[in-house]
Design brief:
- A two-stranded antiparallel sheet has the order 1-2.
- It folds into 4 domains: 343 residues, no CATH class; 88 residues, no CATH class; 56 residues; 107 residues, no CATH class.
- The protein contains 28 helices and 2 strands.
- By secondary structure, it is mostly helical.
């Protein structure tokens, strides 16, 4: 379009300037982080977002184009909604409380699309007069049903914000009552469909202990844990952004999330704007806020002068935009390209519906050529390189899943010479295809400076330990604590290396530091509370081995076994459930690790039984104390 047309419809010049500076600032922030390859790939998506805005404004016009774009976006969301509803009906008999994914990363992320789809379709119903209205009415009900089935409380709040804006705009504009009532009919139909599905799920599983959609009204410990974890996420994001005011590069929150020591390693901040501050710096958040403020001034401009039949559609477009924006306060919507694209499509759509949000401009050919090069060629070329690398890694993952080891080695060997500069590809070569430990170490040492993740550092430390370079291994392992001071795996590995070195006193001190992690917020409020860590339990058992005081030893063993009891009551059944469903593990816990922990716990139980006997405790008293642990250890697959 830019090459062909000299006159192009463009957004307001202030929006162009702020968006351009925002993308530049996000790119500049890459220089301040350690994960530059990953950040560069994520930065390219912001070119796509900007391109979506410019393409929408430049291509759809002001007549039929806005309705066509809204219909296309709504149709895609409706397809996802149908997929989600079918997903729920296929599993509701076994799990009536199931939350749908609809093909998305997680239910909360999917909710953002259904918020936008339901509101946009509501406006389409209010605008059109043809039989197409009834198709849109059905689509609205499906999108709303899918939104409810995500059981995303943040999604419900965002939808409430959008619906309030839609209704308030209609009232202030004095839209006809009949038009307003009909436009909301799809939401009513969706509510009826939700009730029907809930009753069907209850009938299909009468033995279920929890009602369908029970998460909506949940107010117990699980709900408190979810809220508490998000609050810790936001505190962590604020601390990281404060420590790194210039940002660390787009998409890098997951690498730095543990640095303040408040949370476990987490991919998203579950707050789009705080995550933007972490990754792009406070300036990027300020620029985005200004951009949003300027857009808002144009979004409602001239709405009183437009025909009445246009009011519902324009109000819905604004409501859908603000609905996704509101959802960004509880979810990292810019990290999901679908949500990001939808937001920028809707911004462009509302600018075209506005009185003067855009205007035709004569753009000189040299500027158009540079624009094409920077906005089109650069991201397409860059994303093609990233796609090639991801394709190679995906092929290795598929071969691993099929346990085709010769194929894994063959594909892994190719990564050494065609890694496209991706340190993770070189890491996979080191793990799966390096012919010997020295070759593996050589590759890993190149990876660590470019991708200093805890797993990479720990793997490098283990390789050093394999070659009896224990001092180097310990020093390498300690680098984990720079980004993740409470990393239990690194603490446990440090203890192991010290034992291998023969420095038992230092190993015992390391074990005490491992146990001290339990006092940290990151341990007490975990992302997945069903995953009971065992590293601190093993540390107690190590201390118990060297303890001479019978009372202290008994206390250590009792504490460790109490932890293992929880593990076999909570974590082990989840491992069984997931592996029975065909998954290889549950959060890294496999059947083998459960069996190993069972053996460790049984040995500790024998030691505790002996201590009870030596202390003169009666068999009845010791039996009553040990019975819950014995019952938990009877777990079988």
């Amino acid at each position: 379009m830019a090459l062909r047309n000299r006159v192009i419809q463009l957004p307001n010049v202030r929006i162009i300037a702020l968006l351009t500076i925002l993308v530049f600032v996000l790119g500049f922030s890459i220089l301040f982080g350690s994960f530059r390859f990953a950040a560069l790939g994520e930065w390219l998506t912001w070119f796509i977002y900007g391109g979506a805005l410019f393409l929408t404004v430049g291509a759809i016009g002001r007549d039929r184009g806005p309705l066509l774009l809204a219909s296309a976006l709504s149709a895609g969301i409706t397809v996802a909604a149908v997929r989600g509803i079918l997903e729920y009906t296929s599993i509701m008999a076994a799990e009536p409380t199931y939350r749908i994914f609809a093909g998305w990363n997680n239910p909360n992320a999917a909710a953002s699309m259904f918020v936008a789809g339901t509101l946009l379709l509501t406006g389409i119903v209010g605008k059109v007069q043809s039989p197409y209205r009834y198709i849109a009415l059905i689509a609205t009900s499906l999108s709303f049903t899918a939104l409810v089935l995500t059981q995303s409380k943040g999604g419900y709040l965002a939808f409430g914000v959008g619906l309030f804006i839609y209704i308030a705009t209609l009232i202030l504009r004095r839209a006809p009552l009949k038009q307003s009532t009909i436009s909301l009919g799809g939401i009513v139909l969706g509510a009826i469909l939700v009730i029907g599905l809930s009753q069907a799920a209850s009938s299909a599983n009468k033995s279920a202990t929890t009602a369908p959609l029970s998460r909506i009204t949940a107010s117990g410990s699980s709900a408190e844990q979810s809220v508490g974890f998000r609050q810790n996420l936001w505190k962590s994001a604020i601390q990281i952004a404060t420590a790194h005011p210039a940002g660390l590069g787009p998409g890098t929150f997951r690498f730095y999330s543990t640095q303040p020591g408040i949370i476990e390693s987490t991919v998203f901040a579950h707050q789009a704007y705080l995550q933007l501050a972490v990754e792009g710096g406070w300036l990027s958040l300020l620029l985005f806020t200004c951009l949003a403020g300027i857009w808002l001034t144009y979004a409602f401009r001239g709405i009183k002068k437009q025909p009445t039949e246009q009011t519902a559609f324009r109000a819905a477009a604004i409501a859908a935009t603000l609905g996704i924006a509101a959802h960004g306060f509880v979810e990292s919507n810019f990290s999901f390209i679908g949500s990001g694209l939808a937001l920028f499509f809707l911004v462009g759509l509302t600018l075209q519906l506005s009185t003067d949000g855009s205007s035709p401009e004569a753009v000189p050919r040299p500027i158009r050529l540079v624009t094409v090069l920077v906005s089109c060629v650069l991201p397409i070329f860059g994303l093609a390189i990233y796609a090639a690398g991801e394709s190679q890694k995906a092929a290795i993952a598929s071969a691993l899943s099929a346990q085709d080891i010769p194929r894994v080695i063959e594909l892994g060997s190719q990564l050494k010479t065609s890694s496209y500069g991706d340190p993770e590809s070189l890491y996979m070569y080191a793990i799966y295809a390096a012919p010997n430990v020295e070759e593996r170490l050589d590759a890993l040492r190149k990876v660590v400076p470019q991708m200093p993740q805890s797993r990479v550092i720990r793997t490098t430390a283990r390789s050093l330990a394999e070659t009896d370079r224990l001092d180097e291994a310990i020093a390498m392992n300690d680098q984990v604590f720079e980004l993740d001071p409470n990393n239990l795996k690194a603490h446990a590995q440090r203890t192991e290396f010290l034992l291998d070195k023969g420095d038992r006193e230092a190993a015992l001190e390391s074990a005490r530091k491992t146990i001290s992690v339990e006092s940290q917020t990151s341990f007490q409020t975990r992302a997945i509370p069903e995953l009971i860590p065992t590293e601190t339990l093993e540390a107690r058992l190590l201390l118990a081995e060297s303890e001479q005081n019978p009372e202290t030893k008994r206390e250590l063993l009792e504490q460790a076994l109490a932890g293992y009891q929880k593990y076999f009551e909570i974590t082990a059944p989840m491992v069984k459930r997931m592996t029975d469903a065909g998954l290889p593990d549950y959060g890294g816990e496999t059947r083998d690790s459960v069996t190993k922990n069972q053996e460790i716990a049984k040995k500790a139980l024998q030691d505790l039984t002996t201590l009870y006997s030596d202390s003169g405790m009666s068999s009845d008293e010791s039996g009553s104390k040990l019975k819950p642990i014995l019952t938990a250890l009877e777990f079988t697959f």
